[in-house]
Amino acid sequence: MAKDFSSREDNYSQWYNDLVVRADLAENSAVRGCMVIKPYGYAIWENMRDALDKMFKATGHVNAYFPLFIPKSFFSREADHVEGFAKECAVVTHYRLKKDEQGTGIVVDEDARLEEELIVRPTSETIIWDTYKNWIQSYRDLPILCNQWANVVRWEMRTRLFLRTAEFLWQEGHTAHETKEEAIEESEKMIRVYADFAENFMAMPVMTGVKSPNERFAGALETYCIEAMMQDGKSLQSGTSHFLGQNFAKAFDVRFLSRENQLEYVWASSWGVSTRLMGALIMTHSDDNGLVIPPKLAPTQVVIVPIYKQTEQLAQISEVVNKIKSDLEAKGVTVKYDDRDTQKPGWKFNEYEFKGVPVRLAIGPRDIENGTVEVARRDTLTKEIVALNQVADMIPNLLNDIQQNLYDRAKQRMEANTREVNSWEEFKEEIEKGGFLVAHWDGTPETEQLIKDETKATIRFIPINSHFEDGKCIFSGKPSKQRVFFARAY
Amino acid sequence: MAKDFSSREDNYSQWYNDLVVRADLAENSAVRGCMVIKPYGYAIWENMRDALDKMFKATGHVNAYFPLFIPKSFFSREADHVEGFAKECAVVTHYRLKKDEQGTGIVVDEDARLEEELIVRPTSETIIWDTYKNWIQSYRDLPILCNQWANVVRWEMRTRLFLRTAEFLWQEGHTAHETKEEAIEESEKMIRVYADFAENFMAMPVMTGVKSPNERFAGALETYCIEAMMQDGKSLQSGTSHFLGQNFAKAFDVRFLSRENQLEYVWASSWGVSTRLMGALIMTHSDDNGLVIPPKLAPTQVVIVPIYKQTEQLAQISEVVNKIKSDLEAKGVTVKYDDRDTQKPGWKFNEYEFKGVPVRLAIGPRDIENGTVEVARRDTLTKEIVALNQVADMIPNLLNDIQQNLYDRAKQRMEANTREVNSWEEFKEEIEKGGFLVAHWDGTPETEQLIKDETKATIRFIPINSHFEDGKCIFSGKPSKQRVFFARAY
User: Fold this and answer.
1) How high is the pLDDT of residue A100?
2) ipTM of the assembly?
3) In this structure, CATH architecture of domain B6-69+122-285
4) A122: chain B residues, CB-CB within 8 Å
5) The model's pTM
C-alpha cells in the first residue's frame, strides 16, 4: 500500500496530497478548487462537527440557518469587509438556462438576468446582521448566540485539499451583545473552546493569541486565533474568533434600547472553524505509513482481523470476536470486524494501518488455543499479546493512552520548534529551519510586511497575558515591549 | 399571543404563514425566495435530520460531500434532466468584484468571467455521477451507497416558507448498483424508510406509490413517493425515491467489469427529503392555538412553569422541580424549567402552547402542600392533577400517548378524506371538498393534463401492490385496470 507513496522527508507536500487521496479522505472534483469529501474523510469531519456542536450548545449557543446568497449591495456596507472579500467572490448573475438556438447545448438565458447580483457567501456577517436588525429592539432581546453549519465559497487561486479550497464546510458563530465587555468576553470564550477542542479531541496542541492588524479579519477590531505547528515547521491557523465592535451594527443600523433607555448600537463577535481542521489533523499526527487518527475522532477505533485457513476456524474465531466486539461496544468503543474473505490478513493490516485506525486486534487459531489476542497500536506501531479475557477491559485505557501519546508527541515537537531569536541575522537563519521564532517587533505593519517580503514569515500571533519585556525590534531596532510569534504558515 | 393570528377556517394559507413566523420557525430574508431558519425551527429540523441520518446509516449508507457547483456542460448530458431543471437554475458567471470606478459601490469585475458558467446545484446527480466514474471499475466497487446533507437552489417564482423556497436544505442519496433489480430494491427500500420516518417520528400517515410519467423526476424511469394529506384537503409530496436506470451512467460513461467479465453500465437510484417536511409537520398537527409538535421531534418535550408570589416559594418549588427534571432527563426526556421572573405564568402558558411543547407542568405552593402537579397536554389541551411522586414515571408514557394520538388523528383525517369517485361529474364536485379522489384513469399523460387543466388536481400516485379492477377512465371513458389517487397538491 505505502510503496508508491511519498515520505515526509522526500516531499512533504506530496506526502500530504498522497495521504489525503489514497486514504480516501478527499479528492479534487471537476469544478476548479472544489473538493469531494469522501465517506471516510466525511466520517472524521462528522465526529469533529458533533464534538464541536456539543461544546457550542454547552456554552449556550443555538444553531440556525441563513441564506447562501448575499445581495451585492450588502457587501459594500462595511468598508473593510468588502475590501477583504471582493477579490474572491463567486457571483450569481442569472437565474435561468435555455436551449442554445444555434447549437445543441444549453446557454445562459440573457432574459433572466438578476436585477442585483448575488454573492455566494464567503462568510455571513452581512446577511446575518441584516436579519438581526429585525430581531433586536431592546436589551431584553440580547444576547443572541447563534451558530450555523454551512458551506462557504472563496475563489482562491491556488487550492489544496482541505487546507485551501474554493468551497469549504465550516461553522460560523455570530453573536450580538449589549456591551463591549460582553462581546469581548464571548470572543475570548470561543477561542478557548477551539483550543480545548484542538487539544482534547484532535490531540493537537495550539498556541493562542491575537493577530496583528495586518492579519486581522476584514471588519474586526481584534482577531483571536489558535495556531498549530505542523511537522514541516510551518504554522497552521486553525480557528479564529473576532471581536467586531459595533462595525456591523452600524453598517446595518442595528440598535437597541438599553437598560438606561438609550438607543445604542449592538456589539458583535463572530468565530469559525472549517474543514481546514482536517488538514491540521492529518499533518499533525500522520507518518510515512499513512494516516494516524486520534481515538476520539476515529470513525473506527478498533479493527479486528481474523487469521484463518479453514472455514471452521473462522466460525470459532468469530464466536470469540463477537463477544469482544459487543463488550467493547457496551463500553462505547466503535469496532469493525473485517471478516471479508476477499482480502488477505496482510492486505487488511496494511489498509487499516494506512487509514490510521488506532488499534488493531488479530486473532488466529493459535490465539484461540492459548486464550490470547494480538493488540497493535497505530501510533507507536508496537504489538503485544493480551489475554482474551482481559482485552475488552484494557482497550478503553489503551485508547486514552494513544490519545495522550499523540498529544504529547505533538506538544514536544511544538516546543522543540519554538525558540527565541534576538537578531535579524539569527532570524533569517532560523526561519529556514521552520518553527515559531519568538522575537521583538516594533509594532508597525510596515515592518511586518518587510519581514514577510524578505523571509515569507508572518506574525502568527501576539501572545495575550504574556509577560512584557523591553527589547528592540529584530528588524528595525526600534523599541518593543513584547515578543511576538513569527512563522511561515499555511 | 393567538389574538391577531388567523384561524384555519378563516384563512388557511394565512394561518400557516402566521404560524411559521410567529412561532419563530422561519422568516423571509432579504434575498428573494430564500428563508432564514430560526433557532427554534432549526432545532426541529436537527431532530429530523438526526433521526433520518440514523436510519440511513442503519440501512448501510454513508455520508459524503460533493461540490455546490456543477459545470454547465454536465447539465446537458442527460436530456430529460436538463429539460427539468434548466428553467430554475442560479448561474455563477464571475468570480470577482471590484470597486466601481465611476461610483462608490462595487461592481462585478468583467475581467473575471468564468470560462464555463457554474450552476448552483438544484440536485447533484450530474456532479456525483461524474465523480463515481472514477470510483467504479469492477463489480467489487459496487454498491456505492452515499448520502449527502446539503443546500440546493431551485429558482422558484412563487415561494412559501419551507414548502417552496429558492434555497432549501435536504439530503440526497445517490446509489450505484450492479443490477437493475438491486437498484429498484434500493429505491423501494428508501421510500419505505421515508414512510417509516413520516409515520413513526412525524406522526404523519402517508400513502406510498409511484408517480405517473408526467410527475416523474427529470431523468428517472420510476419515481416512488410518499404523500400526506394536509388539514385543508391538499396533498403534500413529502419524499421521493427514484429508480434512474442506466441514464446517468450512460450520460457520464460509468461502466464496470461485471462478474461475467463484461463491461456494463451501472444502475442507479437517488432519493431525497427536504426542509419541506417542516411544512408537512406544521400543517399536519397544528391548530388555531398554534404549533403542535410530536414528542419525538420536539426540541423541548416537557416545560415546567413555577407559579409563585414570593421568592421563598420559588426556592421551594425549584427544589421539587429540579428533582423531577433530573428524573425525567435520566429517562431521556428533554425538559426546560422556565423560572424567569421577567414573564408571568400566563404569558409562559401561552408561549409554550403556541410553540407546541407537548407537555406542560405547572407547580405552585398549593401543589407543594398537596404533593401534586398540574399536567397539561398540548394535543388535547386537557389538564390533570398528578401526584408529585408519580409524575416522572408517567411522563414517558404520556409522551407516547401524545405521539400515538397525533398519528391516529391525522390517520383518521386522511381516511375520512379519501373516497372513490366514479364519474366526471362526481369528480368535479368532490375535488372542491379536497382530499384524495380514488378514480379510474386511462393511463395517458394527455388525460392527466386535461384533468389538471380543468380541476387543478393531479395524480398524486399510482398505488403499488394494489388490487386491480377493470373500470373506465372518469374523464375519457376509456378502459382502465386500476384506480389512482388524485388530489390538489402543494
Assistant:
1) 85
2) 0.96
3) 2-Layer Sandwich (3.30)
4) none
5) 0.96
